[in-house]
Amino acid sequence: MKMLKTGLVATLLLSSAPVFANDSVLKATDDPKQWAIQTGDYANTRYSELNQITRENVGKLQVAWTFSTGVLRGHEGSPLVVDGIMYVHTPFPNNVYALDLANDGKILWRYEPQQNPDVIGVMCCDTVNRGVAYADGMIFLHQADTTVVALDAKSGEVKWTVQNGDPAKGETNTATVLPVKDKLLVGISGGEFGVRGHVTAYDMKTGKQVWRAYSTGPDAEMLVDPEKTMVLGKPVGADSSIKSWEGDQWQIGGGTTWGWYSYDPDLNLVYYGTGNPSTWNPSQRPGDNKWSMTIMARDADTGMAKWMYQKTPHDEWDYDGVNENILVDQEIDGQMRKLLVNLDRNGFGYTLDRETGELLVAKKYDPAVNWATEVVMDKESDQYGRPQVVAEYSTAQNGEDTNTTGVCPAALGSKDQQPASFSPKTGLVYVPTNHVCMDYEPYRVSYSAGQPYVGATLSMYPAPNSHGGMGNFIAWDATKGEIKWSLPEQFSVWSGALATAGDVVFYGTLEGYLKAVDAETGELLYRFKTPSGVIGNVMTYEFNGKQYVGVLSGVGGWAGIGLAAGLTNPNEGLGAVGGYAALSDYTQLGGQLTVFALPD
Predict the structure, then answer these.
(1) What residues are designated binding site?
(2) pLDDT at 12 over 50
(3) CB 198: neighbour CB atoms within 10 A?
């Protein structure tokens, strides 16, 4: 397998130009003994330089210790480890625990917010939370009710709080936050309730709002410069969003920002994705519905957009575009490039130049994908960068109250929020995927603030004529758009992956297994069944000279919503309940952190 020709991977880039980034975050993420940010580093690589655990000895892993969170429902995200303290979060009610690693995990402090339980009713797809963040001696949490909290990392004292949204309008939160320089970047959830998406920067010391950039609407509110903000090498032009919506539909147009955020300190650019347009009935919102379904690159200081790329114009399938953007430096066509890799819900893997937004690769990373034939790569074509939709699977062309069958992937995508990882040793991206198709029937729906604004009935099932399961764990070459190997799984792989310098890649399964595979070949090296399904993200740290691997288990999320919420109607859970009905034969609800290590 071709190796990188230089060591200029994103994780190493982060140690340069510290003037551009938060020194405390850079210092902590540059130390592989710690896990100071949910994505491992600003580049979202989820790669660790720790190498005590190798492909030769990983089979000897044992459970070192466990911790019960005391909460059921889906456990996404991962713990953090900073300066000998582990920070563990839970789903709603979003408790946070600080555990002393030097004293048998003694609870140093706990934060237990008192939230109105009514917020649960306006949270889509389970009550998950993707974790806390660390910077400048503080732990930051974005609660389900959109309260942003800054806690003293040593004592748990509340330093400040701010309200980021209004649950009465359907605005909630499931995501983590990103500390960058002196700001905290915060998104919003609620695309299924007609929320208008935005990203907000708060002053890290005070909680004061510095800037807010909306996903849809007037240029000034989107922080878009019509002449300087670029789309595939051309200026975006005036009123690009408003012109792509009918009437004032953009005001309830979705484009929420509940995914992952990355940051390049050298370019001082923040990257994130925007979600689906509202409603799920495409007939009610003709046009491209910009800038939903879009990768955004923004100046971290001002929020001004430098470039944007819409992956799924006029989304007809709920292919939320919020998945993580992985920043790597790799060679394409003989030239080292600053790349951004995005494995989108729509089933295409994109590679762009993260400085300019130039589209370099757009290929299917699941062969079952059928809603589009290709993404046009000819820069001279008026279709450049656009997917070519297959009429048979177009819910818009088939029309309202018509059941479009056999669409692949399903609405939860070829990959949902579960983050991939990148190894600079192999040059490969390791991707947890869904191998699921659907039937999709849109219908007319009226908007009412705080009420569901979906307008479609779905059913989901494994991709036909395949291995019979609902997931794969794959190794992806983002420079070529090629699958190097693929491991079939019975259920979707809803866990975030971890790649390590020990040539081992870890991930979890919905049945509850932690698995370790060879980074080069995909060979299964180790597995252990935890108490509940794993939708958390695997992390690693070192303490007292020993490497540990940790993962939260607690089945839930969209794929596990039937178990998590006790739903039985196959069409409930936006179509997921029926598709994953068999999951209850393999696991049950739980909430536990399991930490692994090699024997002494």
Answers:
(1) 76, 130, 174, 192, 256, 276, 318
(2) no
(3) 24
In whole angstroms, give the CA distance from residue 312 to residue 291. 10
Helices of type H across 223-265: none
- d(Cα 107, Cα 85) in Å, to the nearest integer? 10
What are the tens digits of pLDDT across the range 250-295?
Answer: 999 999 999 999 999 999 999 999 999 999 999 999 999 999 999 9
Q: Is 318 designated active site?
A: yes
* Three-class DSSP category at 484: strand
Q: Please give the Cα distance from 11 to 8 (Å, whole number).
A: 8
Asked whether the CA dihedral 243, 244, 245, 246 is positive or negative, the reply is positive
The pLDDT mean for the chain works out to 95
Residues whose CB is less than 8 angstroms from the CB of residue 291 and which lie 6 or more positions away in sequence, other chains included: 215, 216, 222, 240, 241, 255, 274, 308, 310
By CB atoms closer than 10 A (0-12, 13-18, 19+), residue 155 is exposed
Q: What is the mean pLDDT of residues 412-441?
A: 98
Residue stretches of the annotated binding site for Ca(2+): 192, 276, 318
Catalytic site residue from 126, 318, 329, 344:
318
The pTM score is 0.95
Question: Which segments are annotated as binding site for pyrroloquinoline quinone?
Answer: 76, 130, 174, 256
Mean pLDDT of the region 161-188: 97
Residue 1: pLDDT band by 50, 70, 90 thresholds?
very low
How many angstroms separate the CA atoms of 501 and 484, rounded?
Answer: 19
Q: Is 137 left (phi over 0), alpha (psi -120 to 50) or beta?
A: left
How far apart (Å, rounded) are the C-alpha atoms in residues 382 and 464?
34
CA separation (Å) from 145 to 29, 87, 254? 29, 21, 18
Instruction: For residue 293, give the amino acid letter.
Output: M
Q: How many CB atoms lie under 10 A from the CB of residue 102?
A: 10
Instruction: Calculate the alpha carbon distances from 110 to 35, 60, 97, 173, 541 in Å.
Output: 19, 34, 5, 21, 22
Q: Is the pLDDT of residue 78 over 60?
A: yes
- Cis check: omega of the bond before 462, within 30 degrees of 0: no
Taking 3-state DSSP, the helix, strand and coil percentages for the chain, each rounded to the nearest 5, stand at 10, 35, 55
d(CA 453, CA 284): 11
Kindly report, residue by residue over 431-462, the tens digit of the pLDDT. Answer: 999 999 999 999 999 999 999 999 999 999 99
Q: What is the pLDDT of residue 562?
A: 87
